[in-house]
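User: Teach me something about this protein's shape.
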Amino acid sequence: MELQVVDELGVSRTPIRLAFEELERQGFLERLPTRGFRVRGISPDDIADAIDVRGNLEGMAARLLAQRGAGDGVIEELQMCVREGRELLREAKGNRHLIDASRWVPMNGKFHSILVAAAGNQVLQAAIDLVGKNPLAGPASLTLSGDFPQLEFKLIERAQEDHEDVLAGIVARDGALVELLMKEHARRSRDNKRRLLEGVRQVMQDRHVA
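Assistant: First, the predicted structure itself:
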């Protein structure tokens, strides 16, 4: 597979190998015992199950953080993510509701990673990292194609509300509340990704027919 891609693209093996390793890290490829890679088979149900598990683990992390009390540095980092989310939504309203995915996706991943890291539980961190290796299961793997701007804007707007509510709960040190909020946040992410994937699949089918 690696050599085939090298031949097709006319580049050296090093960038291809690095790209494959990144795809393996994200869960799209799996390494073969006899060398090489192959595309990993995964269904929408697999993605949904992984997101459900992540939601429960992140809910535990949020509860631990809230109960322990987040330091000023952690609160400031989370606030910066929330402020950037507000700005992205403001910009999207003036641009046909198109969300800048190149900024939203990494910011969303950062919000979640800050929260988990600040919980201070290495075993929990390892479990979340493992679940995040499943394709499209991690918070930084949101699919925003731009084909459905109104729908995508609405979904991101709700995700932003969730972030703000979680932050407020952490500041208030309400562990039970933030655990519930993170679980519900993941559940919505699960359902939204399924809707977006189905929409993208339909668009691809329509373009193929045309």
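Now, about its shape. The chain has a mean pLDDT of 85. The radius of gyration is 19 Å. If you'd like, I can walk through any region in more detail.
User: That's plenty for now, thanks!
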